[in-house]
Input
Amino acid sequence: MFKLFERDVISVDELSKEQTSIDVQHLSVSLNAKKVLNDISIRIPKNKITALIGQSGCGKTTLLNSFNRMNEFINKHTVSGEVWIDNRNIYDKKERVSQLRTQIGMVFQRPNPFPMSIYDNVSFGLRIQGESRRRALDDSVEKALRNAALWDEVRDRLFDSALTLSGGQQQRLMIARALALEPKILLLDEPTSALDPLTTLYIEELIVELKKQCTIIIVTHNMQQAARVSDYAAFIHTGELIEYSDSDSLFTMPNKQQTEDYITGRYG
Amino acid sequence: MRRQIQLNTHISAKYNQELENLKHSVLTMSGVLEQQLVNTLVALKENSPSLAERVALNDARVDSMESQVEQECMRIIAKRNPTAGDLRLVMTVSKTATDLERIGDEIARVAKLVTKNRIPSSEIVLSGMMDIGNRNVAMMRATFDAFARQDDKAAVLAHQQDTQIDRVYKKVLEQTATEIQSSPQDIAIWMDVLWAIRSFERIGDRCKSVCEYVIYLTYGRDLNSSSMKKTVKKLLK
Output
């Protein structure tokens, strides 16, 4: 049949191993003796944007933090299940967490630049990893800033304090800092909630561009944002994965009544 | 106020592309239908049942296109939350696709006249039908040219072509009535012919609706509203 619109969306059930970036199997997480995630199984596709949506406290951020074992910063936590990235279960005892975190970048709700120059902020991770060659650092900083669509704005003031940048610029700097390590996966936790609508659209456009380089997982409360940027979307409610599908289907014809109620603002 | 919608100025390049594709989908559909109409006229003139059969079969393709356009409109509304000119464009495309699908049905109905071997024996009725058909082709071209360029003046001019089609339609109906009186035994055939003539007339009406959507897209108002009358006069000067 003649096709007017081209779509390259693969159903989540048909994702092959090669197309999968993160494979979560029966993941349950308890924090401070409270079960936050209950038996989550989800396959996150490679080089796509996956949005995690749901009410506050439903477990979206906990799931996001499970991908780079950030939950371990909380003292009383227990994890069961498996999270497979690059044929490795990252919860295996042999896993080197510091190395894992270099492959998985993370950007938080509020930009948190270090009180140092723009250049030093971006090159921070590389220096920690032992890179000291000036030329290599220069190249990486420029590349990361270009990828974060910030280069043209800061190229003449790379050694100014990062704190002098505007909110939108600081958030792009955070993305550049994460990109400097060339991560395979980029985790974004409400990356635009503190920004104005126009800057939000610029960051969203940047996110769409970045999926060519890495897999992106975004946690957002903004339903419209999830609809705009994501290729796939997962709805989580009280620690359970209610529905997960390509976002075209989820936002036009969700399978579950619970999802429909949530995305149409009828929940609760 | 007149507003020309710029499709390529959103921050999101993908959104630009989606709206551009949506607009193109309507033009693709109208192109297919124009060819369908031309083929029907050829089949009618040359009494070619095979060509008419192809037109009738091709209608499924038009139906599928309409359904794809509708789905895409729904997807864009759900995912992009379009507002102002973008929303008017999506609504215009959605309504235009429905009208185009109906035009497809009308064309298929005329084509079936040939496949059922019910071409009117009267030369005068047949030439009247060809006249409306050719006027329909011209009106469709003018309408979708106006749509492609978002040209309000061209839309108003195309809109006016329907008056001429209606005039010819009435004349052909009178001629057909005379023919029916002279051969009442062929009433079953004449009924089909009457429906086909009516279908041709409806194509003009559908194009007229699309012209009104183009005006709505540009001004956000109905072409026939009192507030548009002055604007239309100005456009036609």
The radius of gyration of chain B is 19 Å. Residues 122 and 179 of chain B are 7 Å apart (CA to CA).
